[in-house]
Amino acid sequence: MNQLFYANTADGDYATFFYAEYDDTTRKLRYANCGHLAGLLLRGDGSVERLTSTATVLGLFAEWECAVEERQLFAGDALVLYTDGVTESSNDAGEEFGEERATKALMRNREKAPGAMIEAVVEEVRKFRAGEQQDDVTLIVAKCGE
Fold it and tell me: How confident is the model at residue 136 (pLDDT cuts 50, 70, 90)?
């Protein structure tokens, strides 16, 4: 994929990318994070694990390598992916919503179904920000069932 981006975009253009595969039989998540915001694993025990970059962004470099990491999921765990429109929403003082505030909002709402969890966090972002939203606010939540 990097070669396609590198060959078909202008110099300096790039894309962040998060790819994940989940095996429901083994409950294993394999992922590659190419410069995207860290995905979050909200663990059933209340801990949070960040799924940080395993490679740089796509399209900037002709030579590029990407590692794939794996995590074991358990009942009650939730995978959360989000765009910078969530973390970069700012209030009247110019303060960003940020990853810490987003994580706390997710944790407060972790017992809800994925759709309700998304709605609650997006509502917190909406109440926090000043004026018109400047970027997309995208959240994906997937929960590991019993």
Answer: confident
